[in-house]
## 1
Amino acid sequence: MPDEEATDWRKALELSKHEIERVRLEIDRANIDKQRAETDRQRTFLERWNADMSPQHSYIVEHDRSSMALALNAIKSMYILNGGALIALPAFYGFLERVLPTTREAISESAVAFTTGLVLAALTSLLAYIAQTQYGKAASEGLNWRAIKLNAPLGTTDQQLMANPNYTASLGAQRHARDHAEVYRWAALAVGILSLLAFIVGAVAVLRPWA
């Protein structure tokens, strides 16, 4: 009897070992399937990211390039107009003195106007730079919330996304940066127009004796 009981215990122990090994293999297979599913999800995410972000990135790059080119050309024009007029003013003054009685007040008014135009052109450069920086920040935040949206499980609703603090923070930061960029852009445009007006005032002042 003791030998039979020992044999039964050994058989039970062997069965337990086999059962433990079977459960371990099932757990390993489940983990492998889970890792494979996560890998597939990440691959899908990267494919969706590439499909969604490539046009967005190209648009941002092209928009930045064209905006910078237009802004630089406009600002350079203001520098050239006011700076060139200010440099040429002494020679023009000497010419006018020989042709007609030009008052020194007119030349002084022109110099002040052209100098003001130069200062306003410099201020336009600063405002345009700040506006472009804010646009870049808005674009970066836009990429952030889009990444969060693309990385969310399939079928996630907008309401569920809004419950994500990182998602809402990126959305808010994008709106904030874009609003600031618009303010600085319009300010730069207004100051640039004032710089052009300063040149016109200076030109009218120096040519007033001809009237």
## 2
Amino acid sequence: MGMRALLIVILLGWISSPTTAEVTPTSKPLPAGLVNVDVSGRSVVTIESDITWIRTALEQIEPTTRPTTMPADLIARVDEIGPQVVASLKKDLAVDHPRPASTRPATTPATQPFTAETLISERIRPTLQKLNDLSLAVEYVVLPKRTLTDAVKTGWGTPRFYYNRLADDVVFEANIGLSLDAPNDAVPVPVIYVEGDDESAKAKLLVRAVHGMEAGVLDAISQRAGLTVESNLLDYIANEVVIPLNLSRDREWLGIGVIGVIGGKYSSQILGIDRDRWMLAATQEPPQTPVRFASIDLSNPVDPKDLRPEYFPYYVDTMRRKSTLVLWKLVQEKGDEAITQLLIRAIEKDPTLDEDLKQLTRE
């Protein structure tokens, strides 16, 4: 496995790519007997006799607490510290150090160069803005179980709801794909009660569903905003700095560690997270992993084809964590400048670098 292929796997260990699939329409016109009401900006499908208690319950719900890393927060943060991040990132990665042609990022006339400046202005900020502009309509389906079943049997609610004839019951598809580039259809949230439940019990069920859904949506958007920052930073460092170095197998860990330490530095800055806490999470050895730090020799990595398939993801994750830990310890002792110097020596093909890297892995 070459350096580029390995880094792709490493990057997939850090991030998961969010879906951009469109949400398909969820419902036909309401069946007879069902009504749609709007209460305090929340849409509800229900029956006429339930409207009064639903209004009372929804009007008393307090606004959901928002995470501090919502897209609007990160846009403000990027606008505030973006220029300093760009300058510091370029310094840490020795971006302006003279490079032989073999260690320069590959660009073609058909593509714009991926620079530290465009990382912020053309990748991170525009995606954060799309997330900030994201509109997701939620439709609470508050019905007795039998009423919902009868409605779904007519074809209403497809594809989110479908009727299981054998069980004479309704199955709900909970997976939701969100698009940043096209309008999203309303997402139904079933709040199903048993006929005969008193209004207090039904109200508690509805309030719990609203709190869970609204907090879940905010958390999902916040997490995706964080992934936007982190994934783009890692992508830039990997493709524009590390891969062009064409590091030999015994030096691959250096590139992986640079991505982890420098990517972590600027991800934590933009997200407003303590760097030490971020790095602790990135370098801890998972207690249940079958591939331990002690089993990996960074200077003599195992050829992936020699690994059993079930162990490969654990090996990659442990190698990533151990590589990052070695360089993080170096930074704690000597500062980020120590990584800059290692990169410069790699750019200049310093023949004495190998022994120093081996010494780092032994310490």
## 3
Amino acid sequence: MSTPLDGIRVDRLTARDGRRAVLGPLSWSVPEGSVVGLLGPGGAGKTMLFRLLLGIIRMTGGSAAVTGVDVAADPLVVRRRAVLVPQDRKLDSAMRVDRFLSYLASFYPDYRPDTAARLLVRWSISPDARLGALDDGAKTKLLVASALAREPRVLLLDEPVTTLDPVDAQELMGALTDWMAGGTRTVVIAARQPDAFERIADRAAVLVAGRLRLSGDLDELRAGWKRIGAIGLPPHMELAHWPGVEHVYREGETAWLVTRETPEATIARVRDAGGTVHLAADMNLRDIYLTLVRRQSGNNP
């Protein structure tokens, strides 16, 4: 059986601002053909990571490859294979939609105007409309349509649903699902909330303060994390140092222990310490994400 290729691979990637590391060291791989949700709060480094992957800004250490192409050695090749839909959606308000798409097509020999036109019809965006007359949601859809028309092997979406209402967000995710069915394509969706991608993603990663805190198969991540509520444990007991415990907080007499992949061992340790477990609950991706952010900031719920 052949080993799946990586759509994206980074190894000890770093970016610095003077002497201060603002991203990394970061090692991460995204299997080709997967849809990944990249979660992180504002300022976590999601946009910087995307720009590094395209060679728009230079890394200060480590390496990165997109579809097997070294970013530092061949950034132009990478940009032909990977497309970014940026968070900043400022457009020339006087330009018409059809002129905007024609302008983009002039730069890319493989541009498929029929792909963009089909999506405009699907999303009821008039080719004659001025860009300044489009609402934020329509602008996002237009940029996605223009990106898909380039037939990329890797699509990077920087917080695409921030300006969309729930209906528009669902329509966008539906179009991405249809596009993914057309070939071996990789999508990374940067977001601050898992709702932005959870319906279509098969993998997730969490980036906090420039560091990758979590990455893996979405179903496996959900299955591996548990929240255990225990009573009867001494307040001075250093629960956070227990093996497998990712985060601890207290609510009244209850100590809440967030565990990763070792719930049975943690439950046994609680009982050995004289405590009683009154709840062992599964965690969804939002709970896992909030745990990692709170652990970084030192805040409890």
